[in-house]
Amino acid sequence: MGKVAVAFAAAAVVAACSVAGVMVRRRVKSRRKWRSVVEILKELEEGCDTPVGRLRQVVDAMAVEMHAGLASEGGSKLKMLLTFVHHLPQGTEKGTYYALHLGGTYFRILRVLLGGERSYLDVQDVERHPIPSHLMNSTSEVLFNFLAFSLERFIEKEGDGSSSQGVKRELAFTFSFPVKHSSISSGVLIKWTKGFEISEMVGKDIAECLQVALNRRGLDMHVAVLVNDTVGALSLGYYHDPDTVVAVVFGTGSNACYLERTDAIIKSQGLLTTSGSMVVNMEWGNFWSSHLPRTSYDIDLDAESSNPNDMGFEKMISGMYLGDIVRRVILRMSQESDIFGPSSSLLSEPYVLRTNSVSAMHEDDTPELQEVARILKDLGVAEVPLKVRKLVVKVCDVVTRRAGRLAAAGIAGILKKIGRDGGGGITSGRSRSEIQMQKRTVVAVEGGLYMNYTMFREYMEEALVEILGEDVSQYVVVKAMEDGSSIGSALLVASLQS
Ligand code: BGC
Fold first, then answer.
1. 335 belongs to a structural domain
2. Which atom from ligand 1 is nearest to the alpha carbon of 229?
3. Is 315's C-beta closer than 6 angstroms to any atom of ligand 1?
4. Which of 18, 339, 386, 446 is disulfide-compatible with 233, CB 3.0–4.6 A?
5. Which residues of the chain have pLDDT under 70?
6. Confidence (pLDDT) at 433
7. Is 229 a catalytic residue?
8. Beta strands of 374-465 (E only): which ranges?
9. Parallel/antiparallel/unpaired status of strands 169-175 and 94-102
């Protein structure tokens, strides 16, 4: 071999070695990046861990905070608001009633026809529309004019514009935000939640605002009750089954109410003359306990939200926020590795990933996870390999499992407070026999997260059995109440007339 040939051969060997070197280095680098992503997932799993022992601590904390909130005004992060609802619908109500429900994402209008017996409940003309986003930070006048206008159009469809009974139409206003009531039909807004920001409305009487707007449009309607959505759900639950004593909403936001003995509402003794019971709106979205498993994603989400340091529990368990927690985890993974390809600026946009997309990815049962691929593509993340899509599903699972399990702990906390958890409860004057005798207890549940996200629902129900044990959970029935918040509040108006 000539000198030139030797030099060529040597150069070829060097080139081959360096190509191989580059490939090995790339493989090592890509493995290192994958490992860092797996680390992020592991850290998330640890941070969101909810073993039953921890859930029981949350149960106890919930029951203790309920007591504190009932004992004194401002005694707890749980406001435990009076609703002045002493009686729930019995099933004998008659007549035609209307309901308007302002929720977090939708508003609904419906008419209910009641024939005097439980089996005669006819829900007519349910209208459900997304709340136009500009209304969320408009003015109270703009918001209420819009609601009055929507009611007017609804009524126009009935025909002659006057009530078929020749009397004023009785309307229930379901308002899914915290209100300090002075009666069943009046109360002022305490604060906004779920991204609403119309600051001049805080402190205003909500029912009056609606009544004024209705009068302005010449509508022959009377705002007969103002209720929280949880109270509506409880009313429908009770109408169908008088063992219903608790109602919970898992929707854009989350909250619970329950039937409490008036003598246990210590902060209002002297004010509440009616003996018996009253529905208490807990506003549990604001519950907080050091036992809640909080991650850096929750801390950042809270700090960047429109209501920092507020509604901590809601931000871990409700539909408005689950998508954004998942987005934050994926964003971090994409920043610390290139497994999602070139970084997408869309992923940095708050709330761009909605919880219904999380549910669609989580429940994607196609072998290639095509739904996950489609949703990631909409987020500007195109063509990631199957193992990355699987990783995204895992993130959805961890975040939703924590939410479902904490939601169950919240419910068990209420059961504990009212002595229906099979244990001693926190007694506050309850007799021993009352505690020991396990009663059938129905929990009415409403809200899009619960209704539409099967995995959330399953995790919640499974954890409830885990916390209460098989024996006690036989007595606890969780019942879905579709549109309960609106239908139930119309029933409440009916029960006031009868
Ligand atoms: C509100 C509650 C409401 C819940 C569910 C929360 O953000 O504060 O009043 O019941 O959302 O809609």
1. no
2. 10
3. no
4. 446
5. 1-29, 159-167, 273-275, 424-437
6. 47
7. yes
8. 441-446
9. parallel
Identity of the residue numbered 309: N
Domain count, the chain: 1
Asked if 139 and 199 touch (Cβ cutoff 8 Å), the reply is no
- Report pLDDT for 343: 72
Any ligand 1 atom below 6 A from CB of 397: no
Domain CATH for 172? 3.30.420.40
Query: Is residue 173 one of the residues assigned to a domain?
Result: yes
In a domain, 184, yes or no: yes
pLDDT at 435: 45
- Binding site membership of 305 for ligand 1 (Cβ less than 6 Å): no
Close Cβ partners of 301 (under 8 Å, ≥ 6 residues apart): 315, 321, 324, 325, 328
> Tens of pLDDT along 24-83?
555 666 777 889 999 999 999 999 999 999 999 999 999 999 999 999 999 999 999 999
Kind and range of the H or E run holding 480: strand 476-480
Tell me how far the alpha carbon of residue 193 lies from the centroid of ligand 1, in angstroms: 7
How close is the Cα of 149 to the center of ligand 1, in Å? 24
Rg (CA), the chain: 27
Residue 97, domain member (yes or no)? yes
- Which residue's alpha carbon is at the smallest distance from atom 11 of ligand 1? 253
Structural domain that includes position 491? 83-240+482-496
Here the tokens at position 160 are 């002659």
Sign of CA dihedral 240, 246, 252, 253: positive
| pTM of the predicted model as reported, rounded to 2 decimal places | 0.91
List Cα–Cα distances, 241 to 118, 248, 440, 442, 443, in angstroms. 10, 16, 11, 8, 10
Which tokens hold the place of 351?
Answer: 């709330």
